[in-house]
Amino acid sequence: MQNSPIGLMDSGVGGLTVLKEVQRLLPTEKTVFLGDQARLPYGPRDAAEVTTFTRQIAGFLQRQANIKMLIIACNTATAAALATMQQELTIPVVGVIAPGSRSAVQTTRNHRIGVIATTGTIKSDQYRQNILAKDPNNQVFSLACQDFVELVEANDLDSEHARSVVKAGLTPLLDRNIDTLVMGCTHFPLLRPLIQEVMGPDVTLVDPGTATADMATSLLDYWNLANPSGVRHPQGDYYTTGDVDRFNKLADNWLEETPVRAHHLPVADLIQTTEVE
Amino acid sequence: MQNSPIGLMDSGVGGLTVLKEVQRLLPTEKTVFLGDQARLPYGPRDAAEVTTFTRQIAGFLQRQANIKMLIIACNTATAAALATMQQELTIPVVGVIAPGSRSAVQTTRNHRIGVIATTGTIKSDQYRQNILAKDPNNQVFSLACQDFVELVEANDLDSEHARSVVKAGLTPLLDRNIDTLVMGCTHFPLLRPLIQEVMGPDVTLVDPGTATADMATSLLDYWNLANPSGVRHPQGDYYTTGDVDRFNKLADNWLEETPVRAHHLPVADLIQTTEVE
Fold first, then answer.
1. Residues that bind substrate, according to the entry (chains A, B) (predicted)?
2. pLDDT of res. B65
């Protein structure tokens, strides 16, 4: 099992921001990533449906790659499905919300924290609950920015259009005097420069991917699951249910070790694979 | 269980360096610390005896404080007893060697890593094995510095005598061209300024306590064991089997929140408590 890969899943390419941190902290671990772009976005879907999708993907990654750990590199799927997946799977399952909340609590000085995320994540209220559980002195300002996801999936990261969408989206947070902003959707770190520009230099942006990779590292060590081969595996395996060329292009821009050559996985196979069992 | 304290144990005051990191990262967690100074040093004892001591202390902390997690804040006891304690206890048990090894591997650039520790830890060879498992390209230079422990326990951290002991102890490492030195005994970070002075500014000192506190944080989040009260508990509970005044003085120097008022715990009670069960 130590030689098995770590599986990561997302509704699309956003999870690559978490993958990048995992590859940085754990260069000797194999990784396998699945972006469910054909069914993107997850944000507006209800929790039961997102849980079904997550279960299908987890099943595929276990059968295809015998993953030793699953990282739900998607805030919407974490909010909807983490607890269920932790119950159903025998491997460790890591989500992004608890680590992201921890980072935010450790970052803020004035105890005013913004959270931007998809509609589904904001609706779940889990960031606010997690942050207040760790320190009720905080005030949390939550804001759904669903349309940021489309910008990222379209690889539109720095156009004038992107700038205006980001600016309009963040406006409700500008007068809240927050000093910390959680990028509570794994797509959003790809828009970091624009988000920072709009929020100004006094707001620290928290990328939950960093703390999530950190948690994965701790759990591998705790269960003695780290790969002892010592061979670097900078290049992971990639699957997308969507368009391969678009996936590869975005992954190549974002990840350091390239080129990425994703496999196409039809959604029908994903569903069938799970039902066959 | 979420409101229960985290237990930390050491042969003496060295574990306070880990406690300090835990209190920094997890200010809302209650802590209870036991320093077994009456039976110090652990370093020269055999593994079976150290395991017995660790079991006695774990039993005391569970009965006295219903701890929700045990951090073995002692490298010697981690090397001797971590695996056994993880099997015997139903709460998470965290040691310092795996996190410390991870830190070292992530720190080194030239893949030449020094490890200084007690005789027992060096003899266990666990740092070398852990570091090589994570990356076999590393070379590990291990060195027992047992007499550093006495300096710290005597609160002799910056005298000329301390300087000469540290210098003599580290001399075998000076021509090894290491760029990273693991302080593989929790007492040693109290000697950090002297160790840094002797090793020179190009050697990065790794304190496993930082990564251990990080692992504890991840595990609390993973099992949903973090204290949700949000109340700060900067001041822990302290027990020593040794001299209370000496313990308090050293703890007051090292920890930020003071004064520390340790309870004295006779070794006889520690043994009896365990045997009574």
1. 10-11, 42-43, 75-76, 186-187
2. 96
